[in-house]
Amino acid sequence: GAVVSQHPSWVICKSGTSVKIECRSLDFQATTMFWYRQFPKQSLMLMATSNEGSKATYEQGVEKDKFLINHASLTLSTLTVTSAHPEDSSFYICSASGQSPESTQETQYFGPGTRLLVL
Amino acid sequence: RKEVEQDPGPFNVPEGATVAFNCTYSNSASQSFFWYRQDCRKEPKLLMSVYSSGNEDGRFTAQLNRASQYISLLIRDSKLSDSATYLCVVTHTGGFKTIFGAGTRLFVKA
Fold it and tell me: Is the pLDDT score of A1 beyond 70?
C-alpha cells in the first residue's frame, strides 16, 4: 500500500515549548492531508483537514492558533503544537488522501503516528 | 447521536470462530466506506474498502447496505493475530470529510 511517514515518532518536551510534527506521503501526491489526535482507549478525533496551498479547516473545539498546520506541498504537511501543555500529551496521527498506485479509489493512508508527552 | 456507530465490544472469541461487526452511519450523503484495523499503540491500517456489491478478501468479507445505512465485517476462522480494534470509517464527497467509528475491540484466544 501507499506509504506515509511521520516524524518524529515520539517527543518528550517541557511545558511551554513548541513541537513540530512532519507528515509526508512518499509514493503518491496527497490531495488532502488530515491530522488526528487519539487519547488512550479512544478513537481517532479529527483535528483538521488541509489542502495543499490553502488554509486548514479545523474541527469544532480545536484551537487553530495552538495547532498550526502548514501544507506546503502535495507531499508534506506539518503540525506545530505551540506552547504545549501536559493536556496536549497524546498520539498525533496524520493521514494523506489520494489515489495510490494500487487503487483507483480515493483512500486515506496513515502515518505511524507521533507520541507527544509534555512534562 | 454519533454519525458513525459501532458495536462497542469487546468481542472475545476462540480461535477458528466466525465473528461479525456491525456499523451504522447517519449521513445518507456518505460516499465511501472502509474498515481499518488498529493494533494497540499503532496507527490504523486499511483492511478493506466496502462496496454495495460486497467484497471478500480471504477470511474477511465486507458488506454495505445503503438503504439501511449499514456496514458489516465478517471474519471467518479467526486467528490470534486478528486481535485488534476494528474501525468503521465513512467519508463524504471527495474524501474531504472522514468520520471514524469508536472502534470494536476483538480478542481472539487460543
Answer: no
